[in-house]
Structures are given as structure tokens and as C-alpha cells.
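re the bet — no i am not wrong, look at it urself. input seq straight from the record:
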Amino acid sequence: MNDHTGREVPFSARQIVPGQLSYRQLSPGQLSYPRAARSRRHFVKSLSVVVIVSLLLVLILELVLHVYHQGQPPVHPTQAALSSQAALITTQVNDLLMQEAAHQQFSGSVLLAHQDTVLLRKGYSMADWSKQVPNTPQTRFYLGSTTKQFTAMAILILQERSKLQVHDHICSYIAPCPHPWQQVTIHELLTHTSGITEFDHTDVSNASPQSWINDFDDVPLGFAPGSEFSYCNVCYQILGYVVEKVSGEPYCMFLQQTIFDPLQMKRTSCDQPYLSVPDHSVGYASWRVQDVSIGLDTAPHWSFLCGAGLVYSTVEDLYRWDQALSSHTLISQRTLDEAFNPYVLSQYAGSSYGYGWFIARAPRAGHRLIWHDGRVDGFRTYNGLYLDDGVTIIFLSNLSTLDELALAKVLEQIVFTHLTSA
């Protein structure tokens, strides 16, 4: 933008310089002096000195002002415009979510950021209606399938440590291994292309992890590995099991040591019973109606089952995680590119799947959106990174009736409408 309205005029262009006025306005007819030649010569000599001194003062002052302005930060109209647009984004999104909460359509916490600046960080409605505890940016929520990005990262960390390769067969790390899995690779588990079908594991109290694995021995694959996409929660639980076998540590402990602790994600975990941690939100099936399936805690030896959707976190911790992805804190750019590669078309039109992330087009041509949502009883979540635009949209909700993908689309439209006009 080139509009200079309201910009302060430089000092040198508006200030009267000492001596400038008399030099410009004096004329022979305005002068009053004796006619004597000697006096005239004396006056002319004196006037010449005044003029020379005045000119020197002008030059000195302009030089000083030039040096002064060189030391000042330049005025960038684009920066001012972005600041204005950021304020509009914050106001419009906040107004929208307050209205949605007032109409019993939204309950949760939200964080929006642009170029490492947080535009909005706020909680809406109640984390616990019975105790009248409000949602805040520090409130914990179950993530549901948004957890999968952490499971994929755990696998990639083990790959960088030369403990495994994503194109290895999973039976290289699971023994005994169900016969139908012999040709399945880690890559195919990560991309939901393994052919392994969902399995009812609701009754695992008297079983062992190995017996849980053995139950798949009589379950045929739904299709040839790598031949098609079929979203698979149990596949990420199997990946959690692989993490445990390769690392020698429970899944949740490995995530804590390699991801959450290094990134100072102090309110993110899966190794403590959710209902026992402070500042947790209660999941609601509908407005103020608590979900009966709220208890999803698992015994330590079932930690790997959390790999599909039982990590809990906050919007602030997820923002730390998103920032780490941009700074290559955990893995190299080359390995991160593997995670963000669109390997296969997903069930959502316009989105492919990488390793624990959906990959789609951002509103700006040629730019990418890396995202994942989560659904678990009582909770709806979303984490979206516009990698080429520096935009982050995160929200966590404790209301099952929320359509998280519809809300994500509305927030995207608000953000990019104003950023595009900046």
C-alpha cells in the first residue's frame, strides 16, 4: 500500500530553519541603511557573513536530520496493514465463538497464530458444568485422532535413530506375528493402506498385549497392502505397539521423553488417568449432558492403545508442538518431508494422507494445509498448519455435537479473507 495519509511530515520539510526566512524574504527595497559607500560596503560585508552562516547552519541541520532518520526503523505500510488485519481476525473470530457458545454450539479452547504471533488464545463455555469450571487455554482435552501425529513422530524419531525403517515389514518387530500381516509394512500402517481391519478390543481387562495381537491371526486383510486407503484406528495402536517393542519403553513414556518433555509440553500426556489430572475438561454428549463413556483410561501395559487417540493436551501445548515442526527441533527437514508427503488420497475430497497428517491445498495457490481432526466420546479437536503462510488454527472442544471440520473451514475463511486483503 502506498497511501501516506496520516504519516508525519519529515522534520526537515516543515520546520523553519534559523536564518532561512530572512534570507528568502529580504530584498533591496526592504533594506534601510545609510547611503555612504563605506557604510554600504560594511553592511554588504556583514550581510554576506549572515548569508554564509545561515547557509552553513542549513547544511549542518539537514545533515543532522539525515543521520537521525537513517537510524530510525523504516515505515512499512504492509506491516501496519497486517497489524490492522490481525485485529480484525481476532475480533471476528472471538465474536463468532462467543455467539456459538451462547447458542450452545461451541464449548472449548481456541488458539490462532500468524507468523509466530498469537492472535487469539481463549476458552469458551465450561470445562465442567457441575463444578462451574470454565474452559481456558490451559484446559486439557482428549485429542482423539489428533493423537496420530505424535504416534507417527515417534516412529520417525526411531527411524532417525536407526532403530527401524518405515518400509520394514511390521513382523520384523512383532513376534509372534499374525500370518495375514506378513507383507504389511510400517509405511502402510502410517498411511492407512495396510488392509488390516478394525477390531473390537473393548474387553481387554483379562488379556495381555500379545494375546491381543494373536487375535488378529484369524482376521484376513480387507485388501492387498498398499492397494487402497481405508482409515484405520487399530493400525495406529499397532504402531504404538511397534514403538514399545523397538524402544523398550511403554508408548506413553516414550512420547513423554522424546516429544513432550523436550518441547516443554507440560500439560500433555497419556500415562496418567485423565480424570485425575488437574484442569481437565469433562466431555459432553450434548449441551450440559455428560458423556457416559468419559472413562477411557488404560492400564500401563495397554499404553500402546493410546496411539490411536488417547493423548490429552491443551491448545497452548499443541502450539508449541506446531512451532517445533517448523524449527526441526525433533527431526530433520528431510524426515519431516516424509511425514508431510501426500502418499494416498484420503476419504476427504481434496485431502491426501501422509504420516499422521492429512495434506490439502491452502486457500493461496500452491500453498499447503497440514491438518488432522479428532473425535472421541465427548470431544472434538482440530490442529491445522498452513506451512507456507505461517498460520496456525487450533481448537479443542468438549462437546460431541460440534462439527469440527465445518468450524475449521469457517475460521480458515475469516483468517485468509483478511490476510489476503492486507
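see?? The CA atoms of residues 351 and 360 lie 5 Å apart. told u. also The mean pLDDT is 84. so pay up
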